[in-house]
Write a structure and sequence with these properties.
It is globular and about 95 Å long. The termini are far apart. The protein has helices at residues 2-23, 92-97, 100-107, 146-154, 163-174, 185-198, 202-209, 219-231, 239-244, 252-264, 268-280, 286-297, 318-327, 333-336, 341-348, 355-368, 373-385, 394-408, 412-423, 428-434, 436-440, 452-461, 465-469, 480-488, 497-506, 513-525, 530-540, 549-559, 563-573, 584-596, 600-613. The longest helix has 22 residues, at 2-23. The protein contains 31 helices and no strands. With 614 residues, the chain is mainly α. Helix 12 packs parallel to helix 13 (318-327), helix 26 (513-525) runs parallel beside helix 30 and helix 28 (549-559) runs antiparallel to helix 29.
Length: 614
């Protein structure tokens, strides 16, 4: 009976199994899809007493979609420490003293490039003004000796006396150019940027250095870039150079840059510690570090108040001037009154400063060629628009009001009177720049003959030579106005002996400098004959063709029809602080060389400017 029950139970179980199999839903998916992956069986771990296993039998390839078991790695081999010295490993104390930048170098965390490979730029052509935009041709210097270009740029370390010379040199240096034969393109970019900085053109220098990838910077280009960023008060703009460059600098300014850039990279605690350590070992430059601490604190996490005290500060330097302007930190009036040309021109070009403070150096920037006439008008227009909110700026507001009258007064005589008032500022030539377009709006009239020379000079500061030529029938032969038009005339009209004689006899300038400059300009442009040049050179006591190393170089560059090299050599010869340092001989060679290489418009403007400012 028991056996029967067992048989019956087994049959029942078998039937139940069959019933369940039949009642289960049939899967419509392909085989293997939707099924859990099989749990891999661990491989047996051999022991010391186990016998060698038989050779593995080849198996079929693992089906696609199955899990592949990663083999157990073998034991690591010995590490080669033959080239490692324990003395090379920093101690805990040394690690604590390291800056973030030093730690990045130690651990190899500093990237070589800050842009992807596909976006990296070639240094074959560096510049910001293409030939189609008015720049010089790309290959202008390609076949020129590197030594001459290097000498010309390296020795141009001062501002230029000529406004139009400054404008021309700036355009040449900012052009998209290939480096001369034998010169590294990065060195060429560094020389150009350093020259732009020396001219006060920090914005142009900054744009130029930004056309080179940071990874390609040399130490000279790094220095020029830092000067450009400081000159424009663009402190954080220098951070790619500071953090990704390969400069070997350890001066205080560089360490302050490192701290600031670390803060803006999110490394606030380390940056604060670095600047705090720097402050503890700095005596003479404490205010500079304090300004750097406040700037770094603006990154977001700095909660430490920084007090800036100017009581013991007797002099300014570019770093503290730039940081104070970037922070909006007021500079004491006593220091502002002592600012030299560098600070006045840099402040005028800093948009973050109040317009009244920018106006302190605006006249100097306009006379130098940094500001155009339109830029000057914009600056005074901004002052006039906000005149009700300005304090202690009555004289500047009055000048802005008269400038407005010079443009919009319906009466021509009233407009001329307003123009005269604008000219009466501290720098008359800057006033001429400011009124260039207002002067061009006047209709030539014999009633305005007494002011014709200055009106013409004003128009020529903006290159309005065709507007100036409308006054040719108003001015008398031999007058200053006539001399300016004789030089600025787009048509090559010869000047006679009688006209030169009349001008010389009426010349009341010191040492007859206007007559000397007129003769040099006419000779350079080829607008008077050789007999007149010889006669008036003797009468005025000048020798226009006396050779020097510089005159030989610029003449040879003109013979080779190389405009770019002529411009750079012209800039070398126009360095100085006033027109008193410009000689008639230098002016002759500059004007002549420019005229021969096709830059006659610039040559005419420089010659006319020389007579106006002599």
């Amino acid at each position: 009976m028991k056996r029967g029950y067992l048989l019956a139970g087994g049959a029942l179980a078998l039937c139940s199994t069959l019933v369940m199999a039949q009642s289960a839903p049939e899967s419509l998916l392909p085989p293997g899809v939707g099924q859990a992956a099989p749990t891999p069986t661990p491989a047996p771990v051999p022991t010391a007493t186990s016998a060698p296993s038989a050779p593995a039998v080849p198996t079929a390839p693992t089906p696609q979609g199955s899990e592949v078991v990663q083999p157990v790695p073998s034991a690591p081999g010995p590490v080669d420490t033959s080239g490692v010295s324990l003395s090379d490993i920093p101690s805990v104390e040394e690690l604590e003293e390291m800056t973030v930048d030093e730690l990045d170098d130690l651990l190899g965390l500093k990237p070589r490039y800050d842009i992807p490979p596909a976006a990296r730029r070639s240094t074959e052509r560096v510049g910001i003004i293409d030939e189609s935009e008015g720049g010089l041709p790309v290959a202008s210097l390609a076949r020129q000796p590197a030594s001459i270009v290097r000498a010309a740029l390296a020795n141009t370390s001062q501002p230029l006396v000529s406004r139009w010379g400054h404008i021309l040199v700036r355009r040449a240096l900012a052009s998209r150019l290939a480096a001369p034969d034998g010169m590294n393109p990065v060195e060429f970019a560094a020389l150009r940027a350093a020259t732009l900085n020396a001219m006060g053109e920090h914005s142009a220098a900054r744009a130029l250095v930004q056309d080179v990838d940071t990874a390609d910077y040399s130490s000279e280009l790094t220095d020029a870039a830092i000067d450009a960023y400081v000159g424009t008060a663009d402190i954080t703009g220098a951070c790619p150079v500071v953090r990704l460059g390969r400069a070997e600098r350890g001066d205080v300014q560089w360490e302050m840059f490192e701290g600031i850039c670390a803060a803006y990279a999110g490394e606030t605690t380390a940056a604060n510690n670095d600047l705090r350590r720097l402050l503890s070992r700095t005596e003479e430059d404490r205010i500079d570090v304090l300004l750097a601490q406040r700037y770094a604190g603006a990154a977001g996490q700095g909660r430490r108040a920084v007090t800036i005290e100017w009581d013991d500060i007797e002099a300014m330097n570019p770093w503290r001037f730039a940081l104070a302007n970037a922070l909006g930190e007021p500079i004491p009036e006593g220091l502002l009154e002592q600012l030299g040309p560098y600070y006045l021109k840099a402040g005028a070009a800093t948009p973050a400063l109040p317009v009244v403070q920018r106006l302190r150096g605006a006249d100097m920037a306009a006379a130098a060629g940094i500001f155009s006439s339109a830029a000057m008008v914009d600056l005074y227009s901004q002052l006039y628009a906000d005149r009700e909110e300005q304090q202690d700026a009555d004289a500047a507001i009055a000048r802005a009001a008269r400038l407005r009258d010079a443009y919009v007064d319906p009466d021509a005589g009233a407009r001329l009177a307003a123009i005269r008032d604008v000219w009466s500022g501290d720098d008359e030539y800057a006033g001429l720049v400011l009124t260039a377009y207002a002067s061009a709006r006047l209709t030539p009239s014999d009633d305005f003959e007494d002011d014709a020379a200055r009106l013409i000079a004003s128009m020529l500061t903006a290159g309005l030579d065709r507007d100036a030529m409308r006054w040719a029938d108003v001015v008398e032969d031999g007058s200053v106005g006539w001399a300016l038009l004789a030089l600025a005339n787009p048509q090559n009209v010869a000047v006679t002996d009688g006209q030169l004689d009349t001008f010389e006899n009426g010349d009341e300038s010191s040492g007859q400098r206007k007559s000397k400059m007129l003769l040099a300009g006419l000779a350079g442009l080829g607008r008077t004959d050789a007999d007149n040049i010889a006669e008036y050179s003797e009468r005025l006591g000048v020798n226009l063709r006396a050779p020097t190393a510089w005159t030989n170089m610029i003449d040879k560059a003109a013979e080779a029809n190389n405009g770019a090299l002529v411009v750079m050599l012209a800039g070398l010869g126009m360095q100085g602080t006033s027109w008193d340092q410009m000689t008639a001989r230098h002016l002759y060679h500059i004007v002549s060389a420019l005229n021969r290489v096709g830059l006659s418009a610039e040559a005419r403007m420089i010659a006319a400017e020389a007579v106006a400012r002599a």
